[in-house]
Amino acid sequence: MESRDTDWDGVRLHVVTGKGGTGKTTVAAALALALASGGRKVLLVEVEGRQGIAQIFDLPPLPYEERKIAVAPSGGDVYALAVDPEEAMLEYMEMFYGMRRAGRALTKMGIVDFATTVAPGFRDVLVTGKTTEAVRRRGKNGRRVYDAVVLDAPPTGRITRFLNVTQEVAGLAKVGPIKHHSDLVSGVVKSPETAVHFVTLLEEMPVQETLDGIEELRAAGLPPGGVFINMVRESQLPQAALDSAVRGGFDVAELTLGLKAAGLADGTDAATVAEALAEEVVEHARRTEIEHGERESLEQASLPRYELPLLADGVDLAGLYELAESIRTQGAS
Length: 333
Description:
- It contains 14 helices and eight strands.
- By secondary structure, the chain is of the alpha/beta class.
- The chain has two domains: 13-233 and 310-329, P-loop containing nucleotide triphosphate hydrolases (Rossmann fold); 239-287.
- The protein is elongated and about 85 Å long.
- The two termini are 14 Å apart.
- InterPro entries: ArsA/GET3_ATPase-like (IPR025723), ATPase_ArsA/GET3 (IPR016300), P-loop_NTPase (IPR027417).
């Protein structure tokens, strides 16, 4: 196993959250690949029942079991688990009450839905409990089974409630197995072994939701990690040209002459093409200026930031490995 410099030395549970549409699951998958590189073993967990991991890795729907899904760069294995609340509850009942057979009968009666409707926090305890058990688990040799666990968690607006399990079940159980189970989960989630990472775009709404989420997380005593800025588009123009375009001083006549000199357009066509290009430049410059402002807003969080490129061909397996390499080179794994 290769040694590495990382911003998250000692962190074994990486929770990934983000506003819908920011590419949260994609970043979680790429982070798992990055963490596994060099001969490590990483578990990637999803808890929302969307089978997003299977889709990204171009696999059939995942069962409720841990299975190897990818080989990381320079060796290393990524395993995946799609947590099913019903199966997690059966495991819980067997672990604490020895009731697995009875539990299966109870699920047919809808007892799982009943229990998690009456106490919504209990469902979160079940799925986070399965994840934190993987973090704590040791093999027969006494070593940790997984070097790291990556949790593709619920969106930013729900992440604090999802992780703050002790508070969520406080009204459900003051003592007993449920309280003990939630305390075990909380012990991992609130420890230095955990970091909650936020995925955002350089747009006003996801940036503001990220900042709000980080503030809520800190208020609850939960550990914020880094901010992954996804789908970043590099500017193809020098800053002077962008500044000029924003001020409305972009020289269309000069662009027309340039098109003619390059043999890309002739006569009136050159002027028409130049005007269309100038509009694109102005729009690009304005978007770049907005993105610069959103970057400055994210600095308020005082957390490490990582920028992942927009993939022109979309996120396929090759693109996923490209994102993983970007994460590695920026020191996030």
